Amino acid sequence: MKAVFVLFDSLNRHMLGCYGGTRVPTPNFDRLARRSVSFDQHYVGSLPCMPARRDMLTGRLTFLHRSWGPLEPFDNAFPEILHRETGTYSHLITDHFHYWEDGGATYHNRYDSYEFVRGQEGDRWKAMVQPHWERLREKYHARQFSDARRSYFGQNIINREFIKAEEDFPSVRCFAEGFDFLERNKDADNWLLQIETFDPHEPFTAPARFKEAFDTGWNGPIRDWPRYGRVDELPAECEELRANYYAVVAMCDDLLGQLLDWFDANEMWKDTALVVTTDHGFLLGEHDFWAKNRMNLYEEVAHIPLFLHDPRHPERAGTRSQALTQSIDLAPTFLDLFGATPPAENEGISLCRMADGAAPRDGVLFGYFGGAVNVADGRYTYHRFPEDLSKQELYQYTLMPTHIFSPFSTEELAGTTISPPLGFTKGANLLKVPVIERSPMYNNYGPGALLESETRLYDLATDPGQEAPLSDAAVEGRLAALMRRLMTENGAPPEAFARIDLDPSAAG
Fold first, then answer.
1. N- to C-terminal Cα distance for the chain?
2. Are strands 191-196 and 229-230 parallel, antiparallel or unpaired?
3. Contact partners, residue 425, CB within 8 Å, separation at least 6
4. Domain Sulfatase N-terminal spans what residues (predicted)?
């Protein structure tokens, strides 16, 4: 068996033609759908970026115990299991620079080898001690300009001075490295290649040829990086931001097409699995919001695309699965493809088992650490918030106390106690660190970041746009019971139930 795993970042399901999108032509995603099983009920797990990747690698939901952080000593990473049990070689190619920050620094070493493509967003790549800030200030919109050192905006501006030709773009270079791996190893067997690109994550930067179809006539400074929060821009500025996202999606479609061409030319469909998905979606003005992290987990963010080609089942090409799936199912899928056994701590279900439309689960749980606990059952979504985000009892359970950019502060650690082992920590005690308002994560992707905190129920059959919250005590009670059961199965700590006013003893 061979496998290629393509992971995009912030790829909106509803933009793809095979999922009903019409705004951006996506001939290659549509072509992939004809070659694979398309999953129609695929959801996120833990959010945002690195929590999502921890779920993918380990097959476990983590948002009820931990925010953004490294893999833990007790975590199971599927590339290591493949190496240990089946001798499968794994190679990671990525421009997702969060892997090299404090909060992600244990992920890439789980693979046999890896290639880091530099230059995305705030990656500390190119060094310019005295940039021409005045010239650059005129070039970029004020809302995405900064001359501060170690700021994402400032570093991105410097990086972009070195990204001019199409072949310079990090995502293009990621796929080029992927083709290099394939050429070198096409005659070998028993390997997994992960091609992971940060695109179409913001800033929405693509070669000019991809923007031509979406030209808005914008004459202002570069405007391709929306802020996280409520929409307050004028219509022309909003259209330019959206158009730049469309252009990056078009570039991703083109890159995917090159990979599909490779599969065709080398007859890889016969013996190579292909999995394509993303970590989450991105709001482009829907619900009057940009981005993620600040608002309720609407479908545009939580309901994501997923494609699986399993060479053992060519008859499934072009089919669709209605099974409820989520990001934690990726790890057991790769283990299944190569004949490895999922560990006892795994919560996911192999997509190979669900590709024929079977529905072995009745709900999926997802969320941000410190925000709402959310559940979807295929028809309804239920988003249950604490009564007061600022007063909830909340702890990080970890042996790797780092945030995205930094270690935990000494002020945070001052209140640390030792927690006995949780059900999935393999007997390891944990640091139990209280969340405080001065935590670096609190106002970034934690409780202080949220601009919405109202418990809501939506009926997607009658209200697919989630515009009118439903009041139905019976449905809410059923989904609350489903949520309680899934949290119990996950091993959520007692305060995780208390913060959203659920009685864990009623789980069943």
1. 40
2. unpaired
3. 72, 74
4. 4-340
Between CA 89 and CA 469 the distance in angstroms is 48
The angle subtended at Cα 169 by Cα 140 and Cα 256, nearest 5°, is 125
Token pair recorded at residue 410: 């000494």
Helix (H) or strand (E) holding 91: strand 89-94
Q: Comparing C-alpha atoms, which of 270, 303, 335, 349 is closest to residue 39?
A: 303
Residue 398 gets which letter from DSSP? E
pTM beyond 0.85, yes or no: yes
Q: Could you read off the pLDDT of 291-309 as tens digits, one per residue?
A: 999 999 999 999 999 999 9
Please state, in angstroms and rounded to a whole number, the distance separating the CA atoms of residues 368 and 370.
6
**Amino acid identity, residue 108?**
H
Task: Give buried/exposed letters for 457-487 (b at 16+ CB in 10 A, else e).
Answer: bbbbeeeeebeeebeeeebbeebbbbbbbbb
CATH class label, 2-361: alpha beta
Q: How far apart are CA 505 and CA 68, in angstroms?
A: 29
Query: What pLDDT, in 10s, does the model give residues 389-447?
Result: 999 999 999 999 999 999 999 999 999 999 999 999 999 999 999 999 999 899 988 89
Sequence ranges of the domains in the chain: 2-361, 365-506
CA 177, CA 174: separation in Å to the nearest integer?
Answer: 5
Q: Among the residues of 292-392, which ranges form H helices?
A: 299-302, 330-337, 351-354
CB atoms within 10 A of CB 23: 16
Closest to 410 (Cα-Cα) out of 386, 390, 436, 392: 436
Residue 393 phi, psi dihedral angles, 5° rounding: -85, 120
